[in-house]
Amino acid sequence: MLKVFSKSCLHTQGTNVQKFWTVFEHLQNIGLIKAGRDFYIKDGHLYVRLMQVHTLYMNEMITRHEVDWLNKSDLEHQLRLETHVFIEYIRKRFPDGSNNWTFKMRYGKIPALPEFESKLQQKYGIDARLFYNAN
């Protein structure tokens, strides 16, 4: 399955944000979060439909009996504090045709794993090295 994030990508905000990205990756790997519907990558940016993704994250954390999950507003706040990654909260048309409020992030500032670079090339037809030069 496609690996979206390295666990170390958002280390500055502590374990709760790290845990969100870990759960995000897990949910994507098992097919609950889908590229093109819940997130997509374009022009070196990552767009995430946080409203939909947060519900899946919250349900997974409850299933795991975790007590330190972030509510939606706290998660949004923590992500906005990641100024090296977060760009803006905007309305964006997704590949599935829907028009959604999304978090736009600098994908190039999130460290990609080596095997992920080749999967990006295969799945999206893009060179992950371009992300390292993104604004």
Measured distance between first and last alpha carbons: 28 Å
Count every helix, treating DSSP H or I runs of 4 or more residues as helices: 4
Share in β-strands: 15-25%
Using the CA coordinates, give the radius of gyration. Answer: 14 Å
What is the N-to-C succession of helices and strands? HEEHHEEH
Q: What do you see in this structure?
A:
- This protein has 135 residues and is of the alpha+beta class.
- Helices cover 37% and strands 18% of the residues.
- It is built from four helices and four strands, in the order H-E-E-H-H-E-E-H.
- The chain has a four-stranded antiparallel β-sheet with strand order 1-2-4-3.
- It is globular, with a radius of gyration of 14 Å.
- 22% of the residues are buried.
Keywords:
single chain; 135 residues; alpha+beta; four-stranded antiparallel β-sheet; 4 strands; globular; disordered C terminus
Topology readout:
Blueprint: H1 15-29, E1 39-42, E2 45-48, H2 50-63, H3 72-81, E3 86-93, E4 99-106, H4 114-124
Helix pairs in contact: 1-2
Give a brief outline of the structure.
The protein is built from four helices and four strands, in the order αββααββα. The protein is an alpha+beta fold. Strand 3 and strand 4 form a beta hairpin.
